[in-house]
Amino acid sequence: MSKKANKQKPLDKPLNDEAPAKREPLVVYYDENGTKIGDDGYPMTSARKRMHTVFNLCFFWGVIVLVWALFCCVFSYFQNQSYSFYELVATGGTQINGWDLAFVLRMEALFGLFSGVLLFPLNLFGFHWFYDGDPSRKTKIILAVLGLASLAVLVAFVAMIGMPSPISLGNILLVAACAYSMGAVVAERPTLKKAKPASKVVKK
User: Fold this and answer.
1) Average pLDDT over the chain, rounded to whole?
2) End-to-end alpha carbon distance in the chain
3) Which of 1, 163, 179, 191 has the greatest number of C-beta atoms within 10 Å?
4) Is 125 within 8 Å of 55 (Cβ atoms)?
5) SS3 (DSSP) at 29
């Protein structure tokens, strides 16, 4: 055997000794006027900043809506109702304008789940339309469904108990903000040109 064959190979370093993968810093570019440049290369005007903020609000409002729906669902079981085990029917308990409060809370929770399912795709498809140039069809369909459903629930709650559903009211305001901001972005888009980066800021 040769001396080379007898040499022991160096042991590989254990995995836990490897340097952790470093997170890439966020780089923000600005044009010669000091205006921030968006991910699509266009300057972030007031309308575009508002659109970005509104789409972010869709995500955060979706989280709030789901938490509120969970609260309503749990709270509905503390309304002193009588339950029939075999028929699975709940009767009595706290009343609000002739309606069982537990029933109202469960309807709010159900609508909150429905809204949450729509709000997260609205955030996703909205940003794809805004920055990637995808068609706006999916975003508009979600806005229409969410807006019409929220209007129907709002009218039903006001007619039934004399007060609006918090989720439906918030949804309508958000849908209106989305529609207004999208219109402003579309109207402004032909006047914009791709910006040339003049400076950048690295955010860790």
Assistant:
1) 83
2) 55
3) 179
4) no
5) strand
